[in-house]
Specification:
Nitrilase/N-carbamoyl-D-aminoacid amidohydrolase, 29% helix, 8 helices, single chain, 6-stranded mixed sheet, alpha/beta
Amino acid sequence: MLNNEKIKVALAQIAPKLGDLDSNLEKHLKYIQQAKKEKADLVIFPELSLTGYSLKDAVYDAAMKSDDKFLQPIFEASNNIAVSFGMVELTRDLQAKNTQLFLENGKITSKHRKVYLPTYGVFEEKRYFSAGDCFHAFDTKLGRIGMLICEDMWHFSSTMILAQDGASVILCSSAGLLRSIQAKGKPDNIQVWENLNSSSAHNFTSYFVFCNKVGIEDGFIFWGGSEIIDPSGKVVAKAPYFDEALITGEINQKSLKHARFHTTLLSDEKLELVIDELQRIIKQNRENN
């Protein structure tokens, strides 16, 4: 649950410069300061916000440890506001991870390493990143939170794990691409994403905070449209498409309690049955192969 009756969240929908870490760091600090002026309790940035998305071979140049001195200004800026941002993390065994950090009081509260790396169509993340291997909720001063990164969101099991692990707020940082355009000029996949955000919030009676990047990189267009969705599936706050913006929205303990009291899908889930059936399917698939 939430630790406060109301939490103000800022979505920093930015267009980072590809591979320009110094410029992107300054932009992060600027938006964090703006979020503080808005009296936000938390500011969230998109996927790979510190580096840009389409790095390809430059992934290895951009990779750094999560406690690198370069990040110190962001750590210091998190003393009066929680901050979640994306980076290329260099692990101890020299793997590159697509990682989202969550900072409070100048320290890392938690990190999420992207589990599902899309490698189809125009996507080729498995060529440059190593996958994460877990989903877990974590306690913050604001309440219990979970984090996802873009493709993770498309696997309902990811969200179910976080919700069952006690997350009442799920943050999804994304680098969503414009993939096609209808006659009316609105990308086909925007509605699909928005339906996914709304249905996930409703099905798991949790707040969903979706922060998507904007800008153009290597011919790819990122569409923005960041939003906060309440546990009933309704939009609390919405950013514009394609333009940089900082918007704020309120997460309300009362709405969360109301949703979970009147829609008991989360508490009614038969986890033992799900585990048993999945183990049966895994065994069956192994035998068939």
